[in-house]
Write a structure and sequence with these properties.
- The chain is α/β, with parallel strands linked by helices.
- Strand 4 and strand 5 form a beta hairpin.
- The chain is globular.
- The protein starts with a strand and ends in a 6-residue tail after the last helix.
- The structure holds adenosine-5'-diphosphate (ADP) and shikimate-3-phosphate.
- It is found in: Plastid, Chloroplast.
């Protein structure tokens, strides 16, 4: 993670920069007076450049130091938890959006591996909604037969019928977040059901999808499964073909969450730096924009449309 993290540190006492030695990492702002006196006290706003992070680990190792032209001082080293803030922002965002949803459900759509399940679970948790994974519902309706087995034993079109049945059932429910299967967007009837709630498209670049899928394997994703070739290349080729066939269908969703746009907004080099919480925050923001537009449209008199 390349982006700087801003963190406040309560410094315990006066620091005299001349008394410290250490290699400065990051920077620390302090007042002109402190600069002149080469000492300072109190709250410091530090920009940390973490060495490495991982969204599952949720913490970064860091060093905060101050320096002037001649000296530098290591003030604090250890672990910080930037995502504590992120979780709080996510919770607040959900609380902000929730009253305007009026109990409407949310349907996450997107290519295989786009994070519908991961992000959907997070969104349901902070909203206090129930979470459903469409593939899991289909498997349950088939006494635990896996999606991969359903494809092999009954074919794709049978699976698509089950998928539509599952969406029909879900469409009568309120306050649920649904992770749909990547192919749910290809049948117009499925959109009729999903439009009972708000649909959100997780738009993830194919390279990132292929990396994620190669990491977990393709056993549970029959449309990508292939014994030959290296996992990334096979996944990328298959995903490209699928994208050509149905890419446009995802744009029917009410809200689009583009990982490339979030990465640019946050100053990250790669979309792989984005955490599921950051993506969920953006999803709520896009839902908010959709609801605002919807309200504006509702307020326009019929004759003016
Ligand atoms: N933001 C993310 N960064 C890195 N890996 C992710 C992210 N979101 C999901 N993943 C991983 O990608 C894989 C697919 O995610 P999943 O939520 O199952 O996608 P989908 O439900 O759209 O198929 C999982 O292994 C998951 O841990
Ligand atoms: O894209 C698709 O056609 C499919 C995606 C899968 O779901 P995920 O998107 O959850 O992997 C699953 O429904 C099935 O393997 C078909």
């Amino acid at each position: 993670m390349e982006a700087a993290i801003v963190q406040r540190f309560q410094l315990p006492s006066w620091f005299d920069c001349r008394n410290f030695e250490g290699k400065p990492h990051g920077s620390l702002r302090y007042t002109q007076r402190a600069k002149d006196e080469k000492r300072f006290k109190g709250l410091a706003l530090a920009h940390l450049q973490p060495e490495r992070t991982n969204y599952r680990r949720g913490s970064v190792s860091s060093e905060v130091s101050c320096s002037d032209n001649k000296t530098s001082a290591l003030l604090q080293a250890g672990s910080v938890h930037p995502f504590d803030d992120e979780d709080l922002i996510l919770k607040r965002k959900a609380e902000e959006v929730k009253p305007y949803l009026n109990g409407r459900s949310m349907y996450l759509v997107g290519m295989m591996g786009s994070g519908k399940t991961t992000v959907g679970k997070l969104m349901s948790k902070v909203l206090g909604y129930s979470f459903f994974d469409c593939d899991t519902l289909i498997e349950q309706s088939m006494n635990g037969t896996s999606v991969a087995e359903i494809f092999v034993n009954h074919g794709e079109s049978f699976f698509r019928g089950k998928e539509t049945d599952a969406l029909k059932k879900l469409s009568s429910m309120y306050q649920v977040v649904v992770s749909t299967g990547g192919g749910a967007v290809i049948r117009p009837i499925n959109w009729k059901y999903m439009h009972n709630g708000i649909s959100i498209w997780l738009d993830v670049p194919l390279e990132a999808l292929a990396h994620r899928i190669a990491a977990v394997g393709t056993n549970s994703r029959p449309l990508l499964h292939d014994e030959s070739g290296d996992a990334y290349t096979v996944a990328f080729k298959r995903l490209s073909t699928i994208w050509d066939e149905r890419g446009e269908a995802y744009a029917n969703a009410n809200a689009r969450v583009s990982l490339e746009n979030i990465a640019v907004k946050r100053g990250y080099k790669a979309v792989s730096d984005l955490t599921p919480a950051e993506i969920a925050i953006e999803a709520f923001e896009q839902v908010q924009s959709f609801l605002e537009k919807e309200e504006t449209m509702d307020n326009i008199p019929d004759g003016d449309l």
